[in-house]
């Protein structure tokens, strides 16, 4: 589990296709001393397992499913990547709960600068739309961000990025039309699952259905 706070920007220095997918080697400036074999590392928001280490270079095996579902498949040599080590029990949860399980790739529609801050607007894919709410949490390339604008009509959503986050993550390298990894808040998915089962249960027992309006009335 991660918290969506990028700890270092790594660099892809090795890439080799194999029968299982692609083996990546990533160099890290500050995390090398804390990375061990079998550790989980978030790479652009994708949870990967460290398979071997050579000095400040660690390797992961990216399987075919991850290559298709995430932006890891488009990485090239010398590309920069966001890195975060898995949370320890004693760590502060500075962002929000991020699993490293990307739900969808989406495209960047706008990059706007307002004063010192940036507004990143992306396509609102149907697969992720139900799980996003205004001022809710979302992980973009593994970064914990807040939904600043949600427009179902135009099919877009936007996140506001402060200068520190912009300067210290790979968002600074992203261009219009480029794909980014999106992971929605896991609690939104749990609520959806609960609603589905409660509707089934109530329909068989003749109870009033559990709805989003009921949850809101109770403070959820």
The CATH class of the largest domain turns out to be Mainly Beta
Integer count of domains = 2
Compute the number of helices. Answer: 4
Dominant shape: globular
Instruction: Please state the average pLDDT score.
Output: 91
Structural class: alpha+beta
In the CATH hierarchy, the third-tier topology of the largest domain is known as Elongation Factor Tu (Ef-tu), domain 3
Q: What is the level-2 CATH architecture name of the largest domain?
A: Beta Barrel
Strand arrangement, major sheet:
1-2-5-4-3-6
Number of strands: 12
Give a topology summary.
Elements: E1 8-18, E2 21-27, E3 40-43, E4 46-54, E5 57-63, H1 64-69, E6 80-85, E7 104-114, E8 117-123, E9 137-140, E10 143-151, E11 156-161, H2 163-167, E12 179-184, H3 186-205, H4 212-217
Antiparallel strand pairs: 1-2, 1-6, 2-5, 3-4, 3-6, 4-5, 7-8, 7-12, 8-11, 9-10, 9-12, 10-11
